[in-house]
């Protein structure tokens, strides 16, 4: 796996819907400027989201909100089948009403947690049917395709929200190695401070070289690059909430403004000032 310096993947359409079948697929850690629904159907793979890792089984359904870091890792040449739907934030907001908040299942939980349920075969087949209709209409030009596509997307979003709301969470084992999990927790708790490898080493009771090596082997991401990603996500939150540029720089753990501005532009493609005016 090659080194990744940019975790952000912008969505190139309001809705992206795919039912894919392939082999030996492994993605790098990334996050979007929108929401994602992911349904696992077949294969031998792990799914990583923030500091959690789950071994996938048929019917594993995830909801992923903007800025949640995630990736898939396949282990062999078995068929890998999955469904993914990406929706821009602006469209999901447009679809929601005062009575029906379609983003509820994405936000009615802690960040990076409790976003997995396991569907039964009846639920799987119901969702596949809706997805196939949406996928066909997105690539169609028949009369009324846009209205019909929206109607199926509405049904999918209502269905997924109901599934997460009604279905009791089944305890699912987090198989993220403890050393990586603890490292991620430590980073989250100290983002606004200088993160010293010596302090991290003392906290986790392993030497820094071993920690860095384990982190890279499991995530595919250098530890320092992961820290930058986390600080960028925090900075985006402060900017979107109206904090000043200098306060954002300080509160998100950057040592000087020029470094902050340069890093943000490299990661998301725009300056702090521009992002503050038009957050995504």
State the main characteristics:
alpha+beta, Jelly Rolls, Arc Repressor Mutant, subunit A, three-stranded antiparallel sheet, 45% helix, globular
| CATH homologous superfamily placement of the largest domain | Regulatory protein AraC
Count up the domains: 2
Anisotropy-based shape? globular
The rounded distance between the terminal residues' Cα atoms is 28 Å
Strand proportion, as a percent range, falls in: 15-25%
The oligomeric state is single chain
CATH topology of the largest domain: Jelly Rolls
Q: What is the topology, as strand order, of the major beta sheet?
A: 2-9-4-7-10
- How many β-strand runs? 10
In the CATH hierarchy, what is the class of the largest domain? Mainly Beta
By DSSP (H or I, 4+ residues per run), the number of helices equals 11
Helix content: 40-55%
Mean pLDDT: 93
Which architecture name of the largest domain does CATH use?
Answer: Sandwich
Radius of gyration from the CA trace? 20 Å
Q: Class by helix and strand content?
A: alpha+beta
